[in-house]
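Slide 14.
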Amino acid sequence: MIVWTVIVATIDNFISSILIKKGVDLPLLLILAGVLGGLISLGFLGIVIGPVMLAVTYTLVGEWVAAGEADEH
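Slide 15: predicted structure.
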């Protein structure tokens, strides 16, 4: 029973990463890191919250860097 739980949880992590990737323009490795990091830090709720927090942070940092480059020119 525990073996099946581990197998299903692992498959779920990869499938949810792929599905999230289809809706957002982020690197797949970043999304996977968000899923796994969220799972480790927040439990099952982190599977959803982790990638969202990383996506928002990634987007904000990207905009911040782009604005800084625009100010230099």
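Speaker note: Residues 2-72 form one domain.
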